[in-house]
Amino acid sequence: MYKAYPFARPFLFALDPETAHDLAFASLDRAAQFGIARLFSPGAAATPVTVMGITFPNRVGLAAGLDKNAQHLAGLATFGFGFLEAGTVTPRPQPGNPKPRMWRLPQAQALINRLGFNNDGADRFLANLANSSYRGVLGINIGRNFDTSNERAADDYVVCLRAVYTKADYVAVNISSPNTAGLRELQAEDALASLLRVLKRERKELTQKHGRRVPLVIKIAPDLTDDALRGIARLLVQHRCDGVIATNTTIARDGVTGLRHAGEAGGLSGAPLRERSTAVIRKLARALDGALPIIGVGGILSGEDAREKVAAGASLVQIYTGLIYRGPALIAECISALESP
Fold it and tell me: Staple 273 to which of 195, 203, 298, 341, CB 3.0 to 4.6 Å?
């Protein structure tokens, strides 16, 4: 997969993005099953790093959204990631938004998606984990069902937290996707404070029950005001969260205006998001002043982009769209860049 990707990409890009996704993963799963994928995986020397009490083999992870149902972890592990984040998973299965719902903007190295938390639900997610051979660091990203009101959103997050608690190295609470109606309203101060109180209480009970404290991180949007960012930072510290993921996709269209598909509704990811997400990381780092770590994601398409995120204040980084455009070679490049002085 590593060396073959540059040759396979034109064929995959000729297909609908979701069709290409399914085909690529079918090939990766088969290669992993027969031990072929690991033979061609890119190698990169790395020094382990401890963040949130977890020892990560390296600082480069997979962002949520690529493996929503935890079906492909063993194959993805052969790419050399330091950690994988699966999901977003919701309590009940849901189909997501109507197709078409994902578009490539190759001139900008970008994607637009309005998938809408399409996933097979928590029960199937756990069954897939039980059947997986993956034993690396695993983050699990949780969300609410599309038909659950924000007034009842905490119930969905609690259901998911209970379900995945013993399987996750950390749990990411997704309140920032632009593709579930009203979800981003949970980032408002009163709504977020209420949700964090519930999750803090539930995590305390689960810690006592299982004898293990699983870190909670919150995934935020790149479209927040400076005042909102400072308010979120204050609440995360107050409620003893363990980290923050910055950022999700953007509803802005900076850098893609006039391009084909740029007017589609949904979240924009890839190169046009880089500066916006890095600015959020920088502002968060100032507001948090080292109180908790930041996982930086958004527009990483080179090793230098990864270094930029860390220089802005991130302890770890994640990639998704960059993997689509660059392939597995990007992972080794980012690992090496973050190892360089």
Answer: 298
